[in-house]
Write a structure and sequence with these properties.
The protein has 16 helices and twelve strands. It is α/β, with parallel strands linked by helices and 345 residues long. It folds into two domains: 2-141 and 317-344, Glycogen Phosphorylase B (Rossmann fold, 3-Layer(aba) Sandwich), CATH 3.40.50.2000; 151-307, Glycogen Phosphorylase B (Rossmann fold, 3-Layer(aba) Sandwich), CATH 3.40.50. The strands form two sheets. It has a six-stranded parallel sheet, sandwiched between helices. It has a six-stranded parallel sheet with strand order 9-8-7-10-11-12, with helices on both faces. Helix 6 links the parallel strand 5 and strand 6 (135-137). The chain is globular and about 60 Å long.
């Protein structure tokens, strides 16, 4: 099968690209031909890519940013499409006056709709019964890179420091700046702690405010973008992995932290709850007070960190995930007579 993935134009360290590259890895291992196409929203550019590759199926990895240009493509009626709903689509776009109608148009023309968060599937189906028949849950795999990254040596972090890492693009929904401010009482009570950030600056105005606030806090460091193949090495080197997002779909980095056995401290939201098991892989917080209390406990309690540092025994691989995608693709032949040719691929 020839599958064309359409991905929003973003740095390759973002979650959409991490997912796209993992999908490609898994599907290629099963013998499929896969091409990843980046879109800035221009219809003509996407049409050229579709015409050149001649896919059997188009998979949109963002209902709004990848789906909107697809709606304008002339090939749309001749090639079936699958849409992966991201956290931004689900938690912001659907309720947005500008984006919502466009997202619904993309979903209405899709042969299948994929959600990777098991907690979101049921609530989405209940809220959108007209789309429920095309809804599919695909449990994500984890792909861990093996590039080295000597974190403490490269950034002069003392071996005695307890390090907390927020791996996320710098933008309001990730609440990077708010976490920095939230960490003030932790750093005051436990000066041996260090707060680290990594990720692309995706919102320039917000990023400038974040960087300015960072300058006044000697215990906090921005590492810049970490190449995806080196993220596993970075995660292994820190003591606690954080997530302070206002909303999430299903954060890849928390799945990777679980796979590596790194303790997690995350805001109590559905996207985070689905990524790990509280009290087994990490802790959840729902207020400033509970964050500070649990961060201090993790910084001081080595036994607790060790208890939360047990990697899962069986890791779901990109190929496991690709087998689920393959079943979704092939099932389209039974529900869409116009794409029955897929059954032969």
């Amino acid at each position: 099968m020839r599958v064309l993935f359409v991905v929003p134009e973003q740095p390759r360290t973002t979650g959409n690209w991490v997912t796209a590259l993992r999908h490609q890895q898994g599907l290629v291992s099963l013998g499929h031909e896969v091409r990843l196409v980046e879109t800035s929203g221009a219809v003509a550019g996407l049409e050229r890519q579709v015409a050149e590759f001649a896919p059997d199926l188009v998979h949109l990895l963002h209902a709004y940013r990848a789906g909107l240009p697809w709606l304008g493509c002339r090939q749309r009626d001749a090639i079936p499409s699958v849409v992966s709903l991201t956290g931004t689509d689900l938690n912001h776009g659907l309720d947005c006056a500008e984006q919502g109608p466009q997202i619904y148009a993309v979903l209405e023309q899709a042969a299948a709709i994929i959600i990777q968060n098991r907690l979101t599937v049921e609530s989405f189906a209940a809220a959108h019964p007209g789309l429920a028949a095309r809804l599919c849950h695909v449990a994500p795999g984890v792909s861990l890179g093996d590039d080295p990254y000597p974190l403490r040596q490269r950034h002069a972090i003392p071996a005695s420091s307890i390090t907390f890492l927020l791996p996320a693009g710098i933008r309001p929904v990730k609440a990077n700046l708010e976490l920095l401010q939230l960490f003030d009482p932790v750093a005051a009570a436990a000066p041996f702690c260090r707060l680290l950030f990594c990720g692309a600056i995706l919102d320039q105005a917000y990023g400038q405010r974040f960087l300015a606030a960072l300058q006044t806090r000697s215990w906090a460091h921005y590492l810049g973008e970490i190449p995806a193949p080196a993220m596993a090495a970075v995660l292994r080197a820190v003591d606690v992995v954080l997530n302070h997002s206002v909303s999430e779909g299903l954060p890849n980095v928390l799945l990777e932290a679980v796979a590596l056995g790194r303790p997690i401290l995350a805001r109590d939201i559905p996207g985070n709850r689905a990524a790990f098991t509280p009290d087994l892989n990490g802790l959840l917080y729902d207020s400033k007070e509970s964050f500070v209390r649990q961060a201090l406990t993790l910084s001081r309690n080595t036994a607790l960190r060790q208890r939360l540092t047990l990697p899962i025994r069986k890791l779901r691989t990109p190929q496991d995930e690709a087998l689920q995608l393959e079943r979704v693709y092939r099932a389209l032949a039974t529900v869409c007579p116009e794409v029955a040719v897929l059954a032969k691929l």
